[in-house]
Amino acid sequence: MLLSIATASAQDVSFNTIVENKKIGINELLYIEFKINQDYNDFKAPDFEGFVIHSGPNKSTSASLANGKKTYSKSFKYALTPIKKGEIKIGEAEATFNEKVYKSPLLKITVTDSVATAKPINEIASEKIHLITEVSKNSLYLNEGFNVTHKLYVSQDISVKNWKMLDSPKFINFWSEDMDEKEFKVHEGTYQGEPYRYVILKRTVLYPQKTGKLNIEPLSLNVSSAVPTKRRDIFGRFIPEDVNVIITSKSTTIDVKPLPLQGKPDDFTGAVGIFDFTVKANKGIAPNLPKLFEVIIEVEGIGNVSLFDLPNLNLPNNVKTLYEPENTVSINDISAFKRNAYSIAVPAYNKKYTIAPISFNYFNPKTERYERKTSDEFVIEVISREGEKAQGKISTKKKNH
Known about the structure:
- The protein is an all-beta fold.
- It folds into three domains: 4-112, Sandwich (Immunoglobulin-like); 121-257, Sandwich (Immunoglobulin-like), CATH 2.60.40; 273-397, Immunoglobulin-like.
- Helices cover 2% and strands 60% of the residues.
- The chain contains one helix and 32 strands.
- The strands form nine sheets. It has a five-stranded antiparallel β-sheet with strand order 1-2-4-7-6, with no helix packed on it. Strands 12, 14, 16, 17 and 18 form a five-stranded antiparallel β-sheet that branches. Strands 23, 24, 25, 26 and 27 form a five-stranded antiparallel β-sheet that branches.
- A hairpin with a 2-residue loop joins β1 (4-10) and β2.
- The radius of gyration is 38 Å and the shape is elongated.
- The N and C termini lie far apart (77 Å).
- The model is unreliable at 1-10 and 385-392 (pLDDT under 50).
């Protein structure tokens, strides 16, 4: 797009005719501005023969003072629609300043056949903004976890002011764990080979609860953006236009396989992943209650942390628990989690107590086999001397796995 300025000047007075392009299609608008650098009056526009006025006149003034020098301008703007092809002359505009009439230069505009018109501004925005759903796996086992990440890609050509999620995604047939984004950090990337910026809008860990082909439904956003137009400001910069567009991600399909029946343990409770398993004991958890012991069952690794039962402790008859085990879960993403079960053990007598080993089994999707891990055996010894509070110590006997 070229900016054409024709000027008629005399002494300190300049009278300009400004158009963006001297060659337009019969289906395009011609934007024309008559601008004088003085506070003129009695403006008279040309007759615009060969055109009809689409909009205007739109009057504007500007004034500034810099380094003691005052500048001033006054202008009339029109949008014209050509009614014929060929070379069309736009006559002189007139303005009176200090009782003297000033005239703008003549312009010649060439009108051609119809040209491809500019796309609507919302269509341009829709082509420059993309909502992408990325999955860490497309084929997996029942209850095997995977990451779903929603990213908003924005072209370098436009800017995004804000967005609003129209509807939270419904993960039908999945157990979901949301990973909250603390801040929306802008990343540099590419989309279809073009440079783009993107932000991570939402991360979710999903665990399929059904086998077969499962769909992850699309996410939709209402995005407020600013798209550059062909209009320019007084400094020649393109003027952006604000527009709201609805952006929707594509539906994604996941293939979920059933867990194998071969080798499935009778006590399998649904754990799928790769795990470490330990049982630990802490003695003397309260200064005034030295006989109390805390027994901790801990599972750590990768997998469906919230969707299986931990094994029960096998405590001696003379050791009771104060309450049911307390479970805590810590999840960062699909690759890191920890789950604990805490029990407070109360020995009845001052003696040695053996906490027998317990085992935990799970399906490992990497090896495609069921695996089992067994804890160590613990011996808790409670000792009491006359006139002293009961105290204890813990010794461990390693169990051959």
